[in-house]
Design a protein that fits this description.
Number of helices: 25
Helix content: 55-70%
Number of strands: 6
Number of domains: 2
Strand order of the largest sheet: 3-4-6-5
Distance between the termini: 71 Å
C-alpha cells in the first residue's frame, strides 16, 4: 500500500528536502502520524461532545447486556441471544481492563474500535494526498474525516461500520500487490471479521470473489500473482485460519456449537436477515406536508439509497473496462465497488437511516479516493458537496445534536451521569420504580420484547434466553422460555405492546403467543401504567 506512495512522495520533494529528510523516515512522518493524530482528535472530540448524551434501551442495551454477561462468564448465543461473539469479547476485555462494566466503559470500548476503522479509512484516502501535514493535503484529509465521522451512527453499531471499512482496506491490500501471501492474509482478515459479524464475513467473501475474478483478467505476469484457483485456495486457507477462534469455541465450549448452528438454522426458518422496511425513494417524500429541512433530508436519503447501488454497478463496469484495456485503477476503488454491492443488500434489507449509515462506507471511501486524484476545480467542490450533504442528512440523528436541539434531562446510569431525552428519563424511572417495588435487591423480572437494556440498567440477569424477542418463534422454543420464566419467579413482567413497524403480526402476543398466554394466566395486570403500551404484570402473591 505504501511503496508506491513513497516513490511518488520522494520524487515530488525538492532536492534540498530530499537530502535533509531520509526516505526511511517518511512512513512515520508523512503517512501514519498525521492520520493517527487526526483520527485520535476526531474520535476523542466526538466522545467528549456526545459520549455522555443519549441512552438506548433497545439496541445499545442489547450490546451492553451481552458485554456484561460475558464479563460474568456467560457465552454469547449459548446463554443469551446475541450478535456474533467477537464484539462482546472485545468490549468485555477492555471493560475488564478498565475495571468497569458500566455504559460509559462500553462506549469507550466501542470508540476504540471506531478509531481503528476511521484510521483505516483515512489512511486509504491519504494515499492520494502526500505531505499531509501541509495545506491543502491535510485540509482534504480533515474534510474526509468530518464526512466519515458524521456517518458513524448509531453508536452501538460502530463495530459494523468499522468492519466495513476494514474490509475495504483488506481488499485494497490484495489488489495493490496480488501476491500469494496477500491472498492468505486477505482470507485471514475476513475470517477474523466474521467472528464479529457473520454477515460481514459473507460480504467480505462476496467482495473477495469479485476482486479475485477481476485480478484473474489479464494478470500481470511480472508480479508474483497466482492463478485464480491457487489464489482461491490460499484465500480459503486464510479464512479458516482467521475463523479458528470461533471454531475452537465450538470444540471447547460446551453447548456453543449447537447454539451457533441453531442461530444459522433460524435465519432459514424466518427467511430473512432483518425486518424489512420500504425503501424511502426520493420521489416518495411529501414535500408539501413536512418542514423544508426534513423534506430535503428525505430526498437526500432517497438519493443515497440509489447512489450506493449505482456506485457499485457503474464502478464495476468501469473497472472491468479499464482492466480489459490494461489501464491503471486505484486499488481502493476496486475494493470499494466490489464491496458496495453486498453492503447495498444490507442497506436495503431494512431501509432506514441506521442501515444506510452502516452500508455507505464503500461509497464514501471510493468517492473520496477518486476526488483526491482530481484537479482542484473538481476535487474541492465535489468533496465539500459530499461533506455538506452528509452533515445535512446525519447531524440530526446524533445524540449530541439532539440534546442541543431539545431539552435533555440529567440521569445517573451505572454510576455515570448522562443527559437523555425526557422520554428515556421517564422509562428509566419507571423501571427503577417497578424493580424497587416488585423485584428488590436484584430480584428477577421480565421486560419483553424490547428494552434488553433494562437488565444491565438494573444489573440483573434476564430469565429469558431471548432478550430481544423480535421474530416469531415456534412452540418448542416458547415452552423452553416458559420453563425459564417459571424457574426465575420474576417479581414483575413488562410487555411493550407495540406493533413494530406498524405490523400487527409483530406484536409480542402474535410472535410469542404461548409465552404471552402464560404471563396473563400466571401474573396479575397492573392498570395504572403510565403508558398504555406498557403492559405491567406482577406475581399474584405480590398483587394480593
Amino acid at each position: 500500500m505504501y511503496d508506491a506512495m513513497l516513490r511518488l512522495t520522494h520524487t515530488a520533494m525538492p532536492g534540498k528536502l530530499q537530502k535533509t529528510l531520509p526516505i526511511k523516515n517518511l512512513p512515520l512522518i508523512h503517512q501514519i502520524l498525521p492520520v493517527f493524530v487526526l483520527t485520535a482528535f476526531a474520535v476523542l472530540a466526538s466522545f467528549l461532545w456526545q459520549g455522555h448524551k443519549g441512552f438506548n434501551l433497545w439496541d445499545e442495551g442489547y450490546l451492553w447486556y451481552g458485554a456484561q454477561r460475558v464479563l460474568l462468564g456467560e457465552v454469547p448465543l449459548r446463554d443469551f441471544v446475541s450478535y456474533d461473539p467477537g464484539r462482546y469479547y472485545w468490549s468485555a476485555a477492555l471493560m475488564s481492563l478498565w475495571g468497569d462494566s458500566g455504559i460509559m466503559a462500553l462506549r469507550g470500548a466501542v470508540a476504540v474500535f471506531q478509531a481503528i476503522g476511521l484510521f483505516t479509512g483515512l489512511l486509504l484516502i491519504a494515499q492520494k494526498s502526500p505531505l499531509r501535514f501541509k495545506f491543502p493535503g491535510f485540509l482534504y484529509l480533515l474534510l474526509s474525516a468530518i464526512t466519515l465521522m458524521v456517518w458513524m451512527y448509531p453508536r452501538h453499531k460502530l463495530f459494523d461500520i468499522s468492519l466495513s471499512i476494514l474490509l475495504v482496506g483488506v481488499l485494497s491490500f490484495l489488489v495493490q500487490h496480488p501476491a500469494r501471501l496477500r491472498y492468505f492474509v486477505c482470507g485471514l482478515c475476513i475470517g477474523l471479521v466474521a467472528i464479529f459479524g457473520r454477515n460481514h464475513g459473507v460480504y467480505g467473501a462476496v467482495g473477495s470473489a469479485g476482486v479475485m475474478g477481476w485480478l484473474a483478467i489479464k494478470p500481470d505476469s511480472r508480479k508474483d500473482q497466482p492463478g485464480f484457483g491457487e489464489g482461491l485456495l490460499l484465500w480459503a486457507a486464510g479464512v479458516v485460519a482467521g475463523f479458528t477462534p470461533l471454531l475452537a469455541m465450538m470444540l471447547l465450549v460446551p453447548g456453543f456449537a449447537s447454539a451457533f448452528w441453531e442461530s444459522i438454522r433460524f435465519l432459514f426458518e424466518v427467511k430473512a436477515t432483518n425486518l424489512p422496511l420500504p425503501v424511502p425513494w426520493p420521489w416518495k417524500v411529501s414535500l408539501d406536508s413536512i418542514p423544508s429541512e426534513e423534506a430535503i433530508r428525505g430526498v437526500l436519503i432517497g438519493v443515497l439509497f440509489i447512489g450506493i447501488l449505482s456506485f457499485s454497478l457503474v464502478g464495476i463496469a468501469w473497472i472491468l473496462f479499464q482492466k480489459f484495456y490494461n489501464k491503471a485503477v486505484s486499488p481502493v476503488l476496486v475494493a470499494s465497488v466490489f464491496l458496495g454491492l453486498p453492503y447495498a443488500h444490507y442497506a436495503y434489507s431494512r431501509a432506514d437511516v441506521g442501515h444506510l449509515a452502516q452500508s455507505i462506507f464503500p461509497l464514501l471511501i471510493g468517492c473520496l479516493v477518486l476526488l483526491a486524484a482530481q484537479p482542484a476545480k473538481i476535487k474541492w467542490p465535489f468533496a465539500v458537496a459530499l461533506c455538506t450533504m452528509s452533515l445535512w442528512v446525519m447531524h440530526a440523528f446524533h445524540p449530541g445534536w439532539q440534546c442541543h436541539a431539545s431539552q435533555c434531562k440529567a440521569i445517573e446510569i451505572s454510576g455515570n451521569h448522562l443527559m437523555v431525552s425526557p422520554e428515556v428519563e421517564s422509562d428509566v424511572r419507571l423501571l427503577r420504580k417497578l424493580a424497587k417495588e416488585y423485584a428488590p435487591d436484584g430480584g428477577s423480572f421480565v421486560v419483553t420484547p424490547f428494552w434488553p437494556g433494562a437488565y444491565p440498567l438494573l444489573n440483573t440477569k434476564s430469565p429469558m434466553w431471548g432478550i430481544y424477542a423480535l421474530f416469531p418463534r415456534n412452540e418448542d422454543f416458547q415452552q423452553e422460555e416458559i420453563k425459564r420464566i417459571a424457574a426465575a419467579s420474576p417479581g414483575f413482567v413488562l410487555i411493550y405492546d407495540l406493533p413494530l413497524d406498524g405490523r400487527e403480526e409483530l406484536r409480542f402476543r402474535n410472535t410469542h403467543p404461548l409465552i404471552y398466554r402464560y404471563i396473563i394466566e400466571h401474573f396479575d395486570r397492573v392498570f395504572d401504567s403510565p403508558n398504555p403500551v406498557y403492559q405491567i404484570y406482577t406475581g399474584k402473591k405480590l398483587a394480593e
